[in-house]
Amino acid sequence: MMHQITINGLQDLERAAKEFLQQIGDHTLVAFYAPMGAGKTTFTTAVCKVLGVQEDAVSSPTFAIVNEYRAASGEPVFHFDFYRINKLAEALDIGLYDYLDSGCLCLMEWPENVEELLPEETLKVTISVNPDGSRTLSWED
């Protein structure tokens, strides 16, 4: 089934994040595909906020590769940024499969850099920038 959510500006992020979390159901591995500047980190921040992560705790893990946050429930949320990954071994060196197999929510930016390491059940979400500046999230499950 195809899903789409349109985000009509920054003021619409929280609504879109809530709707997204409801629609993805039990999926815990979420990969965001989008060009630079499309809003991957911004949307991930909104998702974390909805989950009760302290807003100031969320930042792009570009240099660390992965950041761990705590949702209001106490559950870990893992936020990956694979932008600087040049070799698959670099992702494996951080214990990628330990995170992916944890059952915790894993939100991934730049997944195309580690595509062949991602499990089949990874939910692939595309963020498109529309001519009016809005964003559209789309995925199939």
Brief account:
This protein is an alpha/beta fold. The chain is built from four helices and seven strands, in the order E-H-E-H-E-E-H-H-E-E-E. Strand 3 and strand 4 form a beta hairpin.
Keywords:
141 residues, alpha/beta, seven-stranded mixed sheet, globular
Characterize the largest beta sheet: strand count, sense, and whether it forms a barrel. 7 strands, mixed
Helicity, as a percent range = 10-25%
Biggest sheet, strands in spatial order?
A: 1-7-6-2-5-4-3
Q: Which structural class do the helices and strands define? A: alpha/beta
Distance between termini? 5 Å
Global mean pLDDT:
94
Task: Give the oligomeric state.
Answer: single chain
Using the alpha-carbon principal axes, give the shape.
globular
CA-atom Rg in angstroms: 14 Å
> What amount of the residues lies in strands?
25-35%
Which regions contain 5 or more consecutive residues with pLDDT less than 50?
none
Query: What's the total count of β strands?
Result: 7
**Secondary-structure element string:** EHEHEEHHEEE
Secondary structure layout plus pairing:
Layout: E1 2-7, H1 13-24, E2 29-33, H2 40-50, E3 66-70, E4 76-81, H3 88-93, H4 96-100, E5 105-109, E6 123-129, E7 135-140
Parallel strand pairs: 2-5, 2-6, 4-5
Antiparallel strand pairs: 1-7, 3-4, 6-7
Helix pairs in contact: 1-2
